[in-house]
Amino acid sequence: MSRPYGVEMLIAGVDHTGPSVYHLECSGAFFKCRAKSIGAATERVDAMLCADGYNPDWTLTEAKKRVLSILKDVMPDALSAVNVELATIVGDGMGAGRFSYVGDVELRGLINEVAQQQVGE
To answer: Is residue 3 part of a domain?
Structure first.
């Protein structure tokens, strides 16, 4: 017997109740999450997210830095604007959200800040 190929997805959005993230498993089951990862280092990243806690009071910049810090710890290659893309969904408080990619200049700046923070620790 072999296991059939499947697809996992993270689905994020904003409605009148605020932001939401759902994890859709290969089996078809889905779960609402506060923070979640999928991919090669899922178990390690999820453990880091649980250990550090998700703080809904983080600013968007703090959340971006935390995500990049975790990626830096689990990725075999050096973190760079070439091998990482970062996107955000920001709600307007009225049930609508705006999806946008973080530009290369901002992303490089955030990566540099994360690298400097980890060197200073």
So the answer is: no
In a domain, 15, yes or no: no
Side chain identity at 120, as an amino acid letter? G
Among 64, 82, 84, which Cα is nearest to 74's? 84
Burial tier of 12 (Cβ tally within 10 Å: 0-12, 13-18, 19+) = middle
Lookup result for tokens 């990049």: 68
pLDDT digits (tens, 9 = 90+) for 30-61: 999 888 888 888 899 888 888 876 777 889 99
**Total number of domains constituting the chain:** 1
Q: Is residue 32 part of a domain?
A: no
CA count, 13 A, side-chain hemisphere, 25:
8
Please give the residue range of the domain that contains residue 51: 41-120
Averaged pLDDT of the chain: 86
